[in-house]
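idk why but the lab printer keeps eating my pages so im just putting this in chat instead. protein + S-adenosyl-L-homocysteine:
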Amino acid sequence: MSLVKNQEIDLTIESFGNSGEGVAHVDGYALFVSGALPGERVHVVVTKVKKNYGYARLLSVLDASPDRVEPLCPVYKRCGGCELQHMSYEAQLRFKTERVYDCLTRIGRLSGNSLPGEIPGESTVRLEVIGCEGEPWHYRNKVQLPVGYDKDGNIVTGFYVARSHEIIPCDECYIQDKKISGVVTEIISILNKYNNGALVYDETEHHGLIRHIYIRHGQQTDQLVVCLVLNVDDTRLIDDCMYEINSLSDVSGVCININNKRTNVITGDKYISVFGDIFIEDKIGDITFRIAPESFYQVNPHMTEKLYGKALEYASLTGNEVVWDLYCGIGTISLFLAKKAKKVVGVEIVDQAIKNAKENAKINSINNAEFICGAAEEIIDSLVNDGLQSSIADVTASTLLVDEDQYEIGRSISDRELPDVVVVDPPRKGCDEKLISAIGKASPARIVYVSCDPATLARDIARLREFGYELKKACVVDQFWQTKHVETCALLSKTSVSAV
Ligand code: SAH
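predcted complex ->
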């Protein structure tokens, strides 16, 4: 049977797709249906037909899965930010576990067919899951919201309709933390007081002023900084607005970011403090972190503590180990592990994040952590290939991004030891191949891989197997309630002599 666009058809959903959508087959041809759940009988209309697969839109659920729940958010379907709101939280965890399992077996080429428990192979791997213990809502400590006009000329903010730049006005986002939502509502009413028709940026004409509102909230310290992203470096039009925003009781600082490019990238390079500090502080466990607006910080700190706890458990530190924390951001994992290690070396590409990491070590009186700014694949490749006899000056020369000012230039790295444990926490694209080879050569006893994309995790595990590493344990730590995003912590260790 060949399907055509706009054809209506009844389907039985068999499994989850990569983004939590339902997958059904018609005579072997795969159809993806957003919002449909495995086990359900649904009525759909075909929207796109490709050679090997197609897409269909859910029209009605004929026979609902027990996992189906009513989404809380009224704009859930149009916004598209929470792909999983129509399933119970247990089903969300099941989807994420299955996704990791699927990637590990299919892309990572680990064998096994039992789910979600063990992956039998050369080693027995158990997939653990740590989910939310309370209500899986109101967690995000950071928002970047577009600002625009509604049809009556009122200033509104909200979320873009999926795959477009039309703003859906939205006062209460159910995954955003409540303090941020309250402040956003107050900011919009202040902006409307000063609304002269030119306050908001128009991306088609590339004129106007305010592009986005960016807010970060330290949930443990209650510090909340508002950043207005502006199209021009001139705040005269909004000086009074910013004064009023700073007077809000929940706001601890106001800053601006200048982004005058025609681009979809939200922020530009330059942040300027207007009132108070542009940094926020927050705590994970008993460690305080100072966080610049441009530095990465996990969005669900409550679950992050559990994630780092798992990384610490997998690292099995006794106090004698040298640990490399690659892609270290503001030093979060490094400092979390430092108390249990002999020494930690963190590597990160964003200069401001490394400055934060060094400050964070000081704030917490941690003296056994060092931080190097640069691309992990370059820094580690130099450290490993130049050998331990090179001086740090050589490393500086070959990796120009090393922070010369703050690093102790001239200090020999001969006193550096190769790592006993390497932690990696890369962006979604995973680790650079050059980095995988350098880690393979450095030959740590254990690798703890913190991943926000199970597909690249599985690919990198397959590459690390070539260096004699085997996956021992893996844990899904659900940081992104209601969304398709999957965070996994995996432990690899050396079981055989490397072929390389
Ligand atoms: N471990 C940290 C940060 C993880 S996010 C935490 O949990 O908070 C990934 C980090 O990798 C970001 O800070 C990003 O700036 C950094 N990064 C991206 N590419 C990099 C590269 N090639 N080398 C080093 N760091 C990189």
